[in-house]
Structure to design on (199 residues):
């Protein structure tokens, strides 16, 4: 029996991961994607992602699948040519609003890997919904090689100008590497499982 299956489904969670689909993604980002996918599978979690077979997205899914994990995707119809062919579930949708909702609604936690405008839009919407108390789910930014530093500096500017509260500035959980992301995920999901609301 595969490792993810051996753990059983009692503690399994759906983790939505946002990431680049660009074929030009550097190898260090691809390696991080594979490691995150593998880490989720080894913990028995279900990977929810954008359904592509290319870029960091593809590496993420492949890492999870090779480790025996369950992977589910939500993809735009127009990107069907790059859909991953080995997923357990793939939902095609016709517009970005449906795609974002399909990814967000399934998640018990969120991770943003390096990505471009689509990833930025997706993680921004999740942060706004957390700010508005529509959910209390943890949101992680994998700040590999300082990828998100400029965005975080922008958040600091908002806070310095008084238009972002200090509490909301702290909503994204910033992690420097994959082990830190996975350890943070473990801690927050353990709190959720015990009935303690995450900070």
């Amino acid at each position: 029996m595969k490792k993810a299956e051996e753990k059983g489904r009692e503690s399994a969670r759906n983790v939505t991961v946002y990431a680049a689909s660009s074929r030009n993604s550097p190898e260090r980002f691809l390696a991080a994607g594979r490691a995150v996918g593998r880490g989720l599978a080894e913990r028995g979690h279900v990977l929810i992602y954008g359904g592509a077979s290319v870029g960091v997205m593809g590496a993420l899914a492949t890492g999870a699948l090779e480790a025996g994990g369950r992977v589910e995707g939500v993809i735009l119809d127009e990107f069907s040519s790059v859909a991953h062919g080995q997923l357990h579930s793939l939902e095609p949708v016709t517009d970005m609003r449906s795609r974002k909702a399909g990814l967000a609604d399934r998640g018990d936690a969120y991770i943003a890997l390096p990505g471009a405008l689509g990833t930025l839009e997706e993680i921004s919407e999740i942060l706004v919904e957390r700010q508005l108390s529509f959910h209390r789910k943890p949101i992680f930014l994998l700040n590999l090689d300082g990828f998100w530093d400029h965005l975080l500096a922008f958040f600091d500017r908002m806070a310095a100008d008084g238009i972002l509260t200090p509490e909301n500035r702290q909503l994204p959980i910033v992690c420097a590497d994959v082990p830190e992301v996975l350890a943070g995920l473990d801690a927050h999901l353990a709190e959720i499982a015990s009935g303690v609301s995450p900070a």
